[in-house]
Amino acid sequence: MGERRLLKPERQVGITGYGAYIPRYRLPASEIARIWAGGAVGLPVKEKAVPGLDEDAATIAIEAARNALARAGIEPGLIRAVWVGSESHPYAVKPTGTIVAEAIGATPHIQAADWEFACKAGTEAFQAAIAFVGSGMADYAMAIGADTAQGRPGDALEYTAAAGGAAYILGPAEESLAIVEASYSFVTDTPDFFRRPYQHYPQHGARFTGEPAYFRHILTAAQTLMEELGYTPADYAYAVFHQPNLKFPQTAAKKLGFTPDQIKDGLLVDEIGNTYAGSSLLGLTAVLDVAQPGDRILLVSFGSGAGSDAFSLIATEELPKRRNLAPFTRQYIQRRKEVDYGLYVRYRRKLEMH
Amino acid sequence: MELPKNWRLRKQRYSMVGEICEKCGARIFPPRDVCPECSKPAATPYTFSGKGTVYSYATVFQAPKGFEEYVPYTVAMVKLEEGPMVAAQLTDVDHDEVKIGMPVEMVTRKLYEEGEEGLIVYGYKFRPRIHKSN
Fold first, then answer.
1. What span, in angstroms and rounded, lies between the C-alpha atoms of A300 and A170?
2. Do A183 and A118 fall within a single domain?
3. Is residue A133 located within the same domain as residue A260?
4. What is the ipTM for the molecules in this complex?
5. Helix and strand counts by DSSP (H, E) for chain A
6. Considering only Cβ atoms within 10 Å of each terminal Cβ, which end of chain A, N or C, has fewer?
Protein backbone atom coordinates (compact mmCIF):
# COMPACT_ATOMS: atom_id res chain seq x y z
CA MET A 1 0.00 0.00 0.00
CA GLY A 2 2.80 2.34 0.97
CA GLU A 3 4.43 2.20 -2.46
CA ARG A 4 1.18 3.05 -4.19
CA ARG A 5 0.56 6.32 -2.39
CA LEU A 6 3.69 8.06 -3.61
CA LEU A 7 3.60 9.64 -7.06
CA LYS A 8 6.80 8.82 -8.86
CA PRO A 9 7.37 8.77 -12.62
CA GLU A 10 9.21 6.05 -14.54
CA ARG A 11 11.76 8.58 -15.77
CA GLN A 12 13.28 10.87 -13.16
CA VAL A 13 12.19 14.49 -13.51
CA GLY A 14 13.47 17.78 -12.17
CA ILE A 15 13.03 21.53 -12.30
CA THR A 16 15.18 22.76 -15.21
CA GLY A 17 14.09 26.39 -14.91
CA TYR A 18 12.12 28.54 -12.48
CA GLY A 19 10.99 32.15 -12.40
CA ALA A 20 9.17 34.52 -10.08
CA TYR A 21 7.15 37.67 -10.60
CA ILE A 22 5.67 40.04 -8.01
CA PRO A 23 4.02 43.37 -8.94
CA ARG A 24 5.52 46.63 -7.75
CA TYR A 25 2.72 48.02 -5.59
CA ARG A 26 2.16 47.27 -1.88
CA LEU A 27 -0.87 47.95 0.26
CA PRO A 28 -0.07 47.90 4.00
CA ALA A 29 -2.62 45.92 6.02
CA SER A 30 -2.76 48.89 8.39
CA GLU A 31 -4.40 50.89 5.55
CA ILE A 32 -7.24 48.36 5.29
CA ALA A 33 -7.61 48.36 9.08
CA ARG A 34 -7.69 52.18 9.05
CA ILE A 35 -10.59 52.22 6.56
CA TRP A 36 -12.67 49.32 7.84
CA ALA A 37 -11.83 48.81 11.52
CA GLY A 38 -10.68 52.15 12.83
CA GLY A 39 -7.19 50.65 12.93
CA ALA A 40 -8.19 48.46 15.87
CA VAL A 41 -7.63 44.90 14.64
CA GLY A 42 -4.80 42.39 14.62
CA LEU A 43 -3.16 42.25 11.17
CA PRO A 44 -2.60 38.86 9.45
CA VAL A 45 0.31 40.23 7.37
CA LYS A 46 2.34 43.44 7.15
CA GLU A 47 1.39 44.22 3.53
CA LYS A 48 0.33 42.68 0.24
CA ALA A 49 1.37 42.96 -3.42
CA VAL A 50 -1.14 44.79 -5.62
CA PRO A 51 -1.07 44.55 -9.43
CA GLY A 52 -0.78 47.66 -11.61
CA LEU A 53 -3.64 48.67 -13.91
CA ASP A 54 -2.00 46.92 -16.86
CA GLU A 55 -1.34 43.63 -15.06
CA ASP A 56 -3.39 40.45 -14.78
CA ALA A 57 -2.74 36.74 -14.27
CA ALA A 58 -1.58 36.43 -17.91
CA THR A 59 1.03 39.22 -17.74
CA ILE A 60 2.26 37.93 -14.37
CA ALA A 61 2.56 34.42 -15.84
CA ILE A 62 4.42 35.74 -18.91
CA GLU A 63 7.16 37.44 -16.89
CA ALA A 64 7.57 34.45 -14.55
CA ALA A 65 7.71 32.16 -17.61
CA ARG A 66 10.41 34.29 -19.28
CA ASN A 67 12.48 34.11 -16.10
CA ALA A 68 12.07 30.32 -16.02
CA LEU A 69 13.15 30.09 -19.67
CA ALA A 70 16.24 32.23 -19.00
CA ARG A 71 17.36 29.81 -16.26
CA ALA A 72 16.51 26.68 -18.26
CA GLY A 73 18.51 27.95 -21.24
CA ILE A 74 16.40 25.99 -23.72
CA GLU A 75 14.69 26.95 -26.95
CA PRO A 76 11.04 27.76 -26.13
CA GLY A 77 9.94 25.51 -28.98
CA LEU A 78 11.13 22.48 -26.99
CA ILE A 79 8.43 23.05 -24.36
CA ARG A 80 5.45 20.79 -25.04
CA ALA A 81 2.95 22.17 -22.52
CA VAL A 82 2.21 25.55 -20.96
CA TRP A 83 -0.24 25.06 -18.12
CA VAL A 84 -1.43 28.01 -16.05
CA GLY A 85 -3.10 27.53 -12.67
CA SER A 86 -5.12 30.51 -11.42
CA GLU A 87 -8.42 31.57 -9.94
CA SER A 88 -8.19 34.92 -11.74
CA HIS A 89 -7.83 33.94 -15.40
CA PRO A 90 -8.47 37.11 -17.44
CA TYR A 91 -11.13 35.43 -19.58
CA ALA A 92 -13.98 33.14 -18.47
CA VAL A 93 -13.60 31.43 -21.85
CA LYS A 94 -10.24 31.66 -23.67
CA PRO A 95 -7.16 30.03 -22.21
CA THR A 96 -4.51 32.05 -20.42
CA GLY A 97 -2.10 29.29 -21.49
CA THR A 98 -2.35 30.24 -25.17
CA ILE A 99 -1.44 33.88 -24.44
CA VAL A 100 1.55 32.87 -22.31
CA ALA A 101 2.73 30.21 -24.78
CA GLU A 102 2.56 32.70 -27.68
CA ALA A 103 4.36 35.42 -25.71
CA ILE A 104 7.30 33.16 -24.80
CA GLY A 105 7.58 31.77 -28.33
CA ALA A 106 6.53 28.22 -27.42
CA THR A 107 3.66 27.88 -29.93
CA PRO A 108 2.40 26.02 -31.95
CA HIS A 109 3.54 22.42 -31.25
CA ILE A 110 2.25 22.52 -27.72
CA GLN A 111 -0.47 21.80 -25.17
CA ALA A 112 -1.88 24.87 -23.46
CA ALA A 113 -4.53 24.81 -20.78
CA ASP A 114 -5.74 26.51 -17.63
CA TRP A 115 -6.00 24.77 -14.30
CA GLU A 116 -8.30 25.58 -11.43
CA PHE A 117 -8.12 24.40 -7.84
CA ALA A 118 -8.16 27.60 -5.76
CA CYS A 119 -4.66 28.16 -4.34
CA LYS A 120 -3.23 24.84 -5.52
CA ALA A 121 -4.04 25.20 -9.23
CA GLY A 122 -0.33 25.81 -9.92
CA THR A 123 0.97 22.75 -8.07
CA GLU A 124 -1.77 20.66 -9.72
CA ALA A 125 -0.24 21.75 -13.07
CA PHE A 126 3.22 21.01 -11.61
CA GLN A 127 2.15 17.40 -10.78
CA ALA A 128 0.80 16.93 -14.32
CA ALA A 129 4.00 18.38 -15.83
CA ILE A 130 6.06 15.83 -13.84
CA ALA A 131 3.92 13.07 -15.33
CA PHE A 132 4.10 14.54 -18.84
CA VAL A 133 7.90 14.54 -18.76
CA GLY A 134 8.18 11.42 -16.59
CA SER A 135 6.17 9.36 -19.06
CA GLY A 136 8.44 10.36 -21.91
CA MET A 137 5.66 12.16 -23.81
CA ALA A 138 7.60 15.41 -23.54
CA ASP A 139 11.10 16.55 -22.61
CA TYR A 140 9.91 19.86 -21.15
CA ALA A 141 6.61 21.09 -19.72
CA MET A 142 5.85 24.41 -18.03
CA ALA A 143 3.65 24.76 -14.95
CA ILE A 144 2.65 28.20 -13.69
CA GLY A 145 0.71 29.45 -10.69
CA ALA A 146 -0.37 33.10 -11.01
CA ASP A 147 -3.14 35.18 -9.49
CA THR A 148 -4.51 38.66 -8.94
CA ALA A 149 -6.71 37.67 -6.01
CA GLN A 150 -9.57 39.88 -4.85
CA GLY A 151 -11.07 40.09 -1.36
CA ARG A 152 -14.40 41.78 -0.68
CA PRO A 153 -13.80 45.27 0.74
CA GLY A 154 -13.79 45.05 4.53
CA ASP A 155 -13.63 41.23 4.56
CA ALA A 156 -10.86 39.38 6.40
CA LEU A 157 -9.52 38.19 3.03
CA GLU A 158 -8.97 41.74 1.81
CA TYR A 159 -5.94 42.03 4.09
CA THR A 160 -4.15 39.19 2.32
CA ALA A 161 -5.58 38.64 -1.23
CA ALA A 162 -2.56 39.56 -3.35
CA ALA A 163 -0.97 39.26 -6.79
CA GLY A 164 2.08 37.34 -7.99
CA GLY A 165 3.15 34.18 -9.71
CA ALA A 166 5.86 31.61 -10.36
CA ALA A 167 6.71 29.44 -13.35
CA TYR A 168 8.56 26.13 -13.52
CA ILE A 169 9.94 24.15 -16.41
CA LEU A 170 9.95 20.44 -15.61
CA GLY A 171 12.46 18.44 -17.59
CA PRO A 172 14.92 15.54 -17.46
CA ALA A 173 16.54 15.11 -14.01
CA GLU A 174 20.05 15.13 -15.49
CA GLU A 175 19.66 18.78 -16.64
CA SER A 176 17.79 19.99 -13.61
CA LEU A 177 18.43 22.56 -10.89
CA ALA A 178 16.44 20.46 -8.42
CA ILE A 179 15.35 16.84 -8.77
CA VAL A 180 11.82 15.77 -7.83
CA GLU A 181 12.25 12.75 -5.52
CA ALA A 182 8.54 12.01 -5.26
CA SER A 183 5.20 13.70 -4.67
CA TYR A 184 1.87 12.95 -3.07
CA SER A 185 -1.60 14.53 -3.28
CA PHE A 186 -4.38 14.47 -0.68
CA VAL A 187 -7.87 15.70 -1.65
CA THR A 188 -11.33 15.68 -0.05
CA ASP A 189 -14.57 17.57 -0.68
CA THR A 190 -14.37 20.33 1.91
CA PRO A 191 -16.40 23.55 1.39
CA ASP A 192 -14.05 26.00 3.13
CA PHE A 193 -13.93 28.66 0.37
CA PHE A 194 -15.71 29.06 -2.96
CA ARG A 195 -16.92 31.49 -5.57
CA ARG A 196 -20.03 30.98 -7.72
CA PRO A 197 -20.10 31.94 -11.42
CA TYR A 198 -20.44 35.70 -12.15
CA GLN A 199 -19.62 36.57 -8.54
CA HIS A 200 -16.67 38.87 -8.09
CA TYR A 201 -15.73 37.93 -4.54
CA PRO A 202 -15.47 34.52 -2.85
CA GLN A 203 -17.25 33.22 0.25
CA HIS A 204 -15.29 31.56 3.01
CA GLY A 205 -16.03 29.59 6.14
CA ALA A 206 -14.06 31.86 8.53
CA ARG A 207 -12.64 29.57 11.24
CA PHE A 208 -13.76 26.49 9.26
CA THR A 209 -10.88 27.27 6.87
CA GLY A 210 -8.39 26.22 9.57
CA GLU A 211 -8.53 22.73 11.13
CA PRO A 212 -10.72 20.74 8.68
CA ALA A 213 -9.32 22.49 5.61
CA TYR A 214 -5.81 23.98 5.68
CA PHE A 215 -4.31 21.97 8.55
CA ARG A 216 -5.85 18.57 7.80
CA HIS A 217 -4.75 18.62 4.16
CA ILE A 218 -1.34 20.23 4.61
CA LEU A 219 -0.36 18.04 7.56
CA THR A 220 -1.62 14.78 6.04
CA ALA A 221 0.07 15.46 2.70
CA ALA A 222 3.39 16.41 4.31
CA GLN A 223 3.36 13.52 6.80
CA THR A 224 2.40 10.89 4.22
CA LEU A 225 5.08 12.01 1.78
CA MET A 226 7.82 12.05 4.45
CA GLU A 227 6.74 8.72 5.97
CA GLU A 228 6.68 6.93 2.64
CA LEU A 229 10.05 8.33 1.67
CA GLY A 230 11.44 7.41 5.10
CA TYR A 231 12.33 11.02 5.93
CA THR A 232 11.81 13.23 8.96
CA PRO A 233 11.90 17.05 9.13
CA ALA A 234 15.60 16.75 10.03
CA ASP A 235 16.29 15.49 6.48
CA TYR A 236 15.12 18.81 5.02
CA ALA A 237 17.09 22.03 4.73
CA TYR A 238 13.95 23.97 3.75
CA ALA A 239 10.18 23.59 3.94
CA VAL A 240 7.62 25.73 2.09
CA PHE A 241 3.92 25.67 2.90
CA HIS A 242 0.96 27.44 1.34
CA GLN A 243 0.78 30.78 3.12
CA PRO A 244 -2.67 32.39 3.36
CA ASN A 245 -1.47 34.39 6.38
CA LEU A 246 1.61 34.32 8.60
CA LYS A 247 0.17 32.16 11.39
CA PHE A 248 -1.06 29.13 9.41
CA PRO A 249 2.25 28.07 7.82
CA GLN A 250 4.13 28.77 11.06
CA THR A 251 1.69 26.56 12.99
CA ALA A 252 1.77 23.80 10.34
CA ALA A 253 5.57 23.81 10.38
CA LYS A 254 5.66 23.56 14.18
CA LYS A 255 3.11 20.72 14.26
CA LEU A 256 5.18 18.77 11.72
CA GLY A 257 8.42 19.37 13.64
CA PHE A 258 10.11 21.97 11.42
CA THR A 259 12.08 24.81 12.99
CA PRO A 260 11.51 28.50 12.16
CA ASP A 261 14.92 28.44 10.41
CA GLN A 262 13.76 25.76 7.97
CA ILE A 263 10.77 27.84 6.80
CA LYS A 264 12.04 31.43 6.97
CA ASP A 265 13.50 31.72 3.44
CA GLY A 266 10.31 30.51 1.76
CA LEU A 267 7.89 32.42 3.98
CA LEU A 268 7.01 35.55 1.98
CA VAL A 269 3.40 36.18 3.04
CA ASP A 270 4.17 38.95 5.55
CA GLU A 271 5.74 41.04 2.75
CA ILE A 272 3.60 40.16 -0.30
CA GLY A 273 0.36 38.65 1.05
CA ASN A 274 -1.34 35.51 -0.21
CA THR A 275 -0.68 35.23 -3.93
CA TYR A 276 -3.10 32.27 -4.15
CA ALA A 277 -1.92 29.90 -6.92
CA GLY A 278 1.43 31.70 -6.75
CA SER A 279 1.79 31.41 -2.98
CA SER A 280 3.68 28.19 -2.22
CA LEU A 281 5.33 28.24 -5.68
CA LEU A 282 6.80 31.70 -4.97
CA GLY A 283 8.00 30.41 -1.60
CA LEU A 284 9.87 27.74 -3.56
CA THR A 285 11.44 30.24 -6.00
CA ALA A 286 12.75 32.18 -2.98
CA VAL A 287 14.25 28.98 -1.56
CA LEU A 288 15.82 27.98 -4.90
CA ASP A 289 17.44 31.45 -4.96
CA VAL A 290 19.47 30.51 -1.87
CA ALA A 291 19.61 26.68 -1.57
CA GLN A 292 22.90 24.81 -1.93
CA PRO A 293 23.54 21.59 -3.89
CA GLY A 294 22.32 18.58 -1.91
CA ASP A 295 19.79 20.57 0.12
CA ARG A 296 16.45 18.77 0.40
CA ILE A 297 13.30 20.91 0.08
CA LEU A 298 9.71 20.10 1.08
CA LEU A 299 6.95 21.95 -0.81
CA VAL A 300 3.32 21.61 0.31
CA SER A 301 0.52 23.55 -1.36
CA PHE A 302 -3.07 23.93 -0.25
CA GLY A 303 -6.12 24.67 -2.34
CA SER A 304 -9.54 25.27 -0.87
CA GLY A 305 -12.20 22.81 -1.83
CA ALA A 306 -9.84 21.16 -0.65
CA GLY A 307 -6.49 19.48 -1.15
CA SER A 308 -2.72 19.58 -0.84
CA ASP A 309 0.13 18.54 -3.12
CA ALA A 310 3.42 17.69 -1.41
CA PHE A 311 6.78 17.45 -3.19
CA SER A 312 10.23 16.37 -2.06
CA LEU A 313 13.05 18.03 -4.03
CA ILE A 314 16.86 17.97 -3.94
CA ALA A 315 18.95 20.88 -5.23
CA THR A 316 21.69 19.93 -7.72
CA GLU A 317 25.13 21.32 -8.60
CA GLU A 318 23.49 23.20 -11.50
CA LEU A 319 21.39 25.44 -9.24
CA PRO A 320 24.07 27.95 -8.15
CA LYS A 321 25.38 28.11 -11.73
CA ARG A 322 22.07 29.08 -13.32
CA ARG A 323 20.05 30.97 -10.73
CA ASN A 324 21.76 34.28 -11.59
CA LEU A 325 20.26 34.20 -15.09
CA ALA A 326 17.02 35.91 -13.99
CA PRO A 327 15.93 38.26 -11.19
CA PHE A 328 15.72 36.80 -7.69
CA THR A 329 12.40 36.67 -5.85
CA ARG A 330 13.84 39.09 -3.26
CA GLN A 331 14.60 41.66 -5.99
CA TYR A 332 10.91 41.74 -6.87
CA ILE A 333 9.97 42.03 -3.19
CA GLN A 334 12.39 44.93 -2.73
CA ARG A 335 10.96 46.73 -5.79
CA ARG A 336 8.25 48.26 -3.65
CA LYS A 337 5.95 51.23 -4.13
CA GLU A 338 3.44 51.79 -1.35
CA VAL A 339 -0.12 52.77 -2.27
CA ASP A 340 -2.91 53.97 0.00
CA TYR A 341 -6.42 52.53 0.11
CA GLY A 342 -7.73 55.12 -2.37
CA LEU A 343 -5.19 54.26 -5.07
CA TYR A 344 -5.71 50.56 -4.35
CA VAL A 345 -9.44 50.98 -4.92
CA ARG A 346 -8.67 52.64 -8.24
CA TYR A 347 -6.03 50.09 -9.35
CA ARG A 348 -8.31 47.17 -8.50
CA ARG A 349 -11.37 48.78 -10.15
CA LYS A 350 -13.39 48.69 -6.94
CA LEU A 351 -14.74 52.21 -7.48
CA GLU A 352 -18.30 52.35 -8.85
CA MET A 353 -19.24 55.41 -10.89
CA HIS A 354 -22.85 56.56 -10.36
CA MET B 1 -13.81 44.71 -32.80
CA GLU B 2 -10.42 44.49 -34.43
CA LEU B 3 -9.79 40.78 -34.03
CA PRO B 4 -7.87 40.16 -37.31
CA LYS B 5 -5.56 43.15 -36.79
CA ASN B 6 -4.76 42.23 -33.20
CA TRP B 7 -4.19 38.62 -34.18
CA ARG B 8 -1.81 39.59 -37.01
CA LEU B 9 0.24 41.79 -34.71
CA ARG B 10 0.49 39.36 -31.79
CA LYS B 11 4.10 38.25 -32.27
CA GLN B 12 5.51 41.77 -32.60
CA ARG B 13 3.32 43.05 -29.77
CA TYR B 14 3.77 40.21 -27.25
CA SER B 15 7.47 39.58 -27.67
CA MET B 16 8.97 42.12 -30.10
CA VAL B 17 9.50 39.73 -32.98
CA GLY B 18 10.85 41.88 -35.83
CA GLU B 19 13.06 41.00 -38.77
CA ILE B 20 16.73 40.84 -39.68
CA CYS B 21 18.09 41.82 -43.10
CA GLU B 22 20.12 38.92 -44.51
CA LYS B 23 22.00 41.36 -46.79
CA CYS B 24 23.25 44.06 -44.42
CA GLY B 25 22.43 42.59 -40.96
CA ALA B 26 20.13 45.45 -39.92
CA ARG B 27 17.61 44.51 -37.26
CA ILE B 28 14.15 45.80 -38.21
CA PHE B 29 11.24 46.74 -35.95
CA PRO B 30 8.37 46.84 -36.57
CA PRO B 31 8.64 44.18 -39.29
CA ARG B 32 8.03 45.54 -42.80
CA ASP B 33 9.64 42.92 -45.10
CA VAL B 34 11.93 45.53 -46.71
CA CYS B 35 15.18 46.65 -45.12
CA PRO B 36 15.06 50.39 -44.32
CA GLU B 37 18.90 50.50 -44.54
CA CYS B 38 19.63 48.79 -47.87
CA SER B 39 16.12 48.48 -49.41
CA LYS B 40 16.52 44.73 -49.99
CA PRO B 41 13.75 42.23 -49.12
CA ALA B 42 14.05 41.20 -45.44
CA ALA B 43 11.58 38.76 -43.94
CA THR B 44 13.64 36.60 -41.57
CA PRO B 45 12.08 36.77 -38.07
CA TYR B 46 14.29 38.17 -35.33
CA THR B 47 13.33 38.42 -31.65
CA PHE B 48 14.63 41.60 -30.05
CA SER B 49 16.26 41.50 -26.62
CA GLY B 50 13.81 44.11 -25.33
CA LYS B 51 16.66 46.15 -23.85
CA GLY B 52 16.99 49.82 -24.66
CA THR B 53 17.26 53.36 -23.30
CA VAL B 54 14.81 56.23 -23.12
CA TYR B 55 15.59 58.62 -26.00
CA SER B 56 12.78 61.04 -25.17
CA TYR B 57 9.44 60.99 -23.41
CA ALA B 58 6.21 62.83 -22.65
CA THR B 59 3.63 62.30 -19.94
CA VAL B 60 -0.02 62.06 -20.94
CA PHE B 61 -2.61 63.70 -18.68
CA GLN B 62 -5.41 63.96 -21.28
CA ALA B 63 -5.63 60.49 -22.71
CA PRO B 64 -7.30 59.35 -25.92
CA LYS B 65 -10.39 57.15 -25.67
CA GLY B 66 -9.67 53.76 -24.15
CA PHE B 67 -6.62 54.89 -22.17
CA GLU B 68 -8.30 57.27 -19.70
CA GLU B 69 -7.92 55.02 -16.68
CA TYR B 70 -4.12 54.84 -17.02
CA VAL B 71 -3.63 58.63 -16.62
CA PRO B 72 -1.04 59.91 -15.91
CA TYR B 73 1.18 57.67 -18.03
CA THR B 74 4.42 58.26 -19.85
CA VAL B 75 5.04 57.50 -23.51
CA ALA B 76 8.66 57.20 -24.57
CA MET B 77 10.79 56.86 -27.65
CA VAL B 78 12.97 53.91 -26.75
CA LYS B 79 16.24 53.33 -28.58
CA LEU B 80 16.63 49.55 -28.73
CA GLU B 81 20.08 47.99 -28.25
CA GLU B 82 19.78 46.48 -31.73
CA GLY B 83 19.27 49.91 -33.32
CA PRO B 84 15.62 50.68 -34.06
CA MET B 85 13.61 53.30 -32.17
CA VAL B 86 10.13 52.39 -30.94
CA ALA B 87 7.36 54.39 -29.31
CA ALA B 88 5.78 52.70 -26.30
CA GLN B 89 4.26 53.30 -22.91
CA LEU B 90 6.46 53.12 -19.84
CA THR B 91 5.10 51.18 -16.87
CA ASP B 92 6.00 50.52 -13.22
CA VAL B 93 7.56 53.97 -12.98
CA ASP B 94 6.30 57.31 -11.68
CA HIS B 95 6.28 59.99 -14.37
CA ASP B 96 8.62 62.26 -12.38
CA GLU B 97 11.22 59.46 -12.15
CA VAL B 98 11.70 59.12 -15.92
CA LYS B 99 15.02 60.40 -17.32
CA ILE B 100 16.48 60.59 -20.82
CA GLY B 101 19.07 57.84 -21.15
CA MET B 102 17.37 55.65 -18.53
CA PRO B 103 17.94 51.92 -19.21
CA VAL B 104 14.65 50.11 -19.73
CA GLU B 105 13.48 46.61 -20.59
CA MET B 106 10.44 45.28 -22.41
CA VAL B 107 7.55 43.70 -20.53
CA THR B 108 4.27 42.37 -21.90
CA ARG B 109 1.29 44.13 -20.37
CA LYS B 110 -2.33 44.94 -21.06
CA LEU B 111 -2.48 47.76 -23.64
CA TYR B 112 -6.24 48.27 -23.52
CA GLU B 113 -9.50 46.38 -23.35
CA GLU B 114 -12.19 46.56 -26.01
CA GLY B 115 -14.90 47.35 -23.47
CA GLU B 116 -16.09 44.96 -20.75
CA GLU B 117 -17.05 42.21 -23.20
CA GLY B 118 -14.39 42.54 -25.86
CA LEU B 119 -10.82 41.45 -26.43
CA ILE B 120 -8.05 42.17 -23.93
CA VAL B 121 -5.16 43.48 -26.03
CA TYR B 122 -1.65 42.72 -24.72
CA GLY B 123 1.59 44.21 -25.96
CA TYR B 124 5.00 45.58 -25.14
CA LYS B 125 5.73 48.37 -22.70
CA PHE B 126 9.03 49.31 -21.08
CA ARG B 127 10.00 49.66 -17.44
CA PRO B 128 13.21 50.47 -15.54
CA ARG B 129 15.51 47.42 -15.72
CA ILE B 130 15.38 45.07 -12.75
CA HIS B 131 18.11 42.54 -13.30
CA LYS B 132 21.44 43.79 -11.99
CA SER B 133 23.53 41.59 -14.27
CA ASN B 134 21.97 43.07 -17.43
1. 17
2. no
3. no
4. 0.96
5. 13, 14
6. C
Same domain, A76 and A212: no
Domain that holds residue A137: 12-177+322-347
Question: Cβ B122–A103 below 8 Å, yes or no?
Answer: yes
Q: Which CATH number do you get for residue A278?
A: 3.40.47.10
Pairwise CA distance, residues B133 & A326, whole Å: 9
pLDDT tens profile B63-87:
999 899 999 999 999 999 999 999 9
- What is the pLDDT averaged over residues A56-77? 98
In a domain, A7, yes or no: no
Residue of A54, A62, A331 with shortest CB distance to B91: A54
Same domain, A137 and A227: no
CA A26 → CA A49, A148, A160, A163, A338, distances in Å? 5, 13, 11, 10, 5
CA of B111: which chain A residue's CA is closest? A54
CA distances from A332 to A100, A269, B38 (A): 20, 14, 43
Residue B90 sits at the chain A interface (C-beta within 8 Å): no
Return the pLDDT at A207: 79
Cα torsion for A8, A9, A12, A17, to the nearest 10°?
Answer: -90
pLDDT at B122 over 50: yes
- Give chain A's domain count: 2
Burial class (CB in 10 A: 0-12, 13-18, 19+), A150: buried
Does residue B27 sit at the A interface (CB-CB below 8 Å)?
no
Which of A141, A130, A146, A110 shows the shortest CA–CA distance to A184? A130
Q: Under CATH, what is the fold of the domain B49-134?
A: OB fold (Dihydrolipoamide Acetyltransferase, E2P) (2.40.50)
CA distance A195 to B69: 28
What would the pLDDT profile of A160-183 be if each residue is shown by its tens digit?
999 999 999 999 999 999 999 999
Residue type (1 letter), B70? Y
Query: Which sequence spans correspond to the domains of chain B?
Result: 1-48, 49-134
